[in-house]
Design goal:
- By secondary structure, the chain is mostly beta strands.
- It has helices at residues 2-17, 398-401, and strands at residues 37-51, 60-72, 80-93, 116-128, 131-138, 141-142, 145-146, 156-164, 170-181, 196-204, 209-218, 222-234, 240-252, 257-258, 261-262, 267-280, 283-294, 326-335, 344-356, 364-376, 386-396, 408-420.
- The strands form 3 sheets. The chain has an 18-stranded antiparallel barrel. Strands 6-7 form a two-stranded antiparallel ribbon.
- The chain has 2 helices and 22 strands.
- The chain starts with a helix and ends with a strand.
């Protein structure tokens, strides 16, 4: 593994030094102020989880308002450009939120919800040719270390990340992070991250085929590897078939916190999914299969490894990641643009999982029925504002309820209003 990291870093450095066949981003810099961008996202969010057959007090409902600020300078001119980024959020609860939870609202030690809270940070950045290095507070979008952005405010990581696009169609990344702040945490290192080293590469072969590999070494917690291949087959009349493969292999280290509790020995997990989607006009139909093997189910987020690090097909409220679980999905999406309502989309899906191994049952099952409507304003003063309504109906055998989650009816309502500052 050490050799793999050294090779990735060496490629990143070498790529920054070789000549390329396409334009340098840094040579086209207009300046620190001239290329600056700023925006505020006003988000109103509500999540309610109605848990069946449990104490009603265990049900959670969260309702809040946030403003997420993002300020990015351009890069100074010259061979090496420098800049700064600032990101932060300010929020307040709406209503009492007596049973707040769901990763939405931070809580005091007595369990009561915060009335208002604010978080944020800054980073410095440098660019040479098409290679950038950024150090500080960041929102990550890597399959092995992905910030949760599906709550009121994003999950933040603190560290350094380098990205290189010196070779056409190839992106290389490498970095190290030492702090992790989840969406409902005030402490900038609420997940007590020691050291997470990431590396990876993404390559576009042509307009139809893309592939990627990423790795993560979280000190004393886990080692993780991810691969992806995506192929789009054009058909007649602008129809298409899309095939997507995702796979993770994780080695959990003794003492890490995983979904079966505190590990007393090293355990590994392999999970993969493959999907095929047919798109014709406004309609998209997808079939997917997902499978888990190893001594433990797939686990993410609990080891400061990103609460959105689950780039597999069968991931909704449940991620269908139980020990030895197999799952299948059928999904249908409809774009209402063809029916006179541009900006409106509907997605519905049913996922069924079986052969889950639990302490009391080797054949446990789970299922989820998912529905989501999303409308994005296309023009006018509210252009790009969006309203998203999402509902999940989740059920499982009691043997899996006991180790994963209770049968749940979940409703999510999010209103996003972006405002461009400059």
């Amino acid at each position: 593994m050490l050799k793999t990291k050294k090779l990735s870093l060496a490629l990143l450095v070498n790529a920054a030094l070789i000549s390329t066949a396409f334009a340098s981003e840094q040579s086209e810099s207009k300046g620190f102020v001239e290329d600056a961008e700023g925006s505020v996202l006003f988000r109103t969010g509500y999540i309610k989880r109605d848990k069946q057959d449990v104490n009603p007090g265990d049900d959670t409902s969260s309702f809040a308002q946030s403003a997420i600020v993002k300020l990015e300078s351009g890069y100074t001119k010259g061979v090496v450009g420098f800049g700064v980024n600032v990101t932060g959020d300010a929020s307040f609860k709406l209503g009492e939120n007596k049973h707040a939870g769901n990763g939405m609202i931070p809580k005091h030690n007595d369990g009561s919800a915060y009335d208002h809270w604010a978080r944020g940070g800054a980073s410095v950045k440098a660019r040479v040719s098409n290679t950038t290095v950024e150090y500080g507070t960041q929102v990550l979008d890597l399959p092995v270390l992905a910030s949760n952005t599906a709550r009121m405010v994003p999950e933040y990581f603190t560290g350094v990340l380098a990205k290189s696009r010196e070779i056409e169609n190839l992106e290389l990344v490498a970095g190290k992070f030492t702090e992790n702040q989840y969406s409902d945490q005030i402490n900038t290192d609420g997940n007590h991250l020691d050291s997470a080293v990431v590396w990876g590469a993404k390559y576009k072969f042509d307009d139809q085929l893309n592939a990627s590999y990423y790795g993560l070494d979280s000190k004393d917690k886990l080692d993780r590897h991810y691969i992806n291949a995506n192929y789009v087959m054009p058909l007649a009349n602008k129809d298409s078939l899309t095939f997507d493969f995702n796979g993770y292999h994780t080695q959990f280290e003794a003492g890490s916190l995983a979904n079966s509790g505190i590990l007393t020995e090293d355990k590994s997990n392999s999970i993969w999914s493959i999907s095929g989607a047919y798109n014709t006009g406004a309609h998209n139909v997808m079939l997917a299969y997902q499978q888990n093997t190893g001594g433990i189910g797939y686990d993410y987020g609990n080891n400061a490894d990103g609460a959105q690090s689950i780039y597999v097909a069968n991931s909704y409220l449940s991620d269908f990641v139980g020990k030895h679980e197999k799952s299948a999905q059928i999904q249908y999406s409809l774009d209402f643009s063809n029916y006179g309502v541009p900006g409106l989309n509907w997605t519905t899906a049913y996922v069924y999982g079986w052969d889950i191994q639990t302490p009391t049952d080797d054949k446990a099952k789970e299922s989820e029925f998912f529905n989501q409507f999303k409308y994005t304003v296309q023009s006018g003063f509210a252009k790009d504002a969006s309203l998203r309504l999402r509902y999940s109906h989740y059920r499982a055998d009691q043997a899996y309820n006991d180790v994963y989650m209770a049968d749940t009816n979940e409703l999510r309502v999010f209103l996003d209003v972006p405002v461009k500052l400059f």
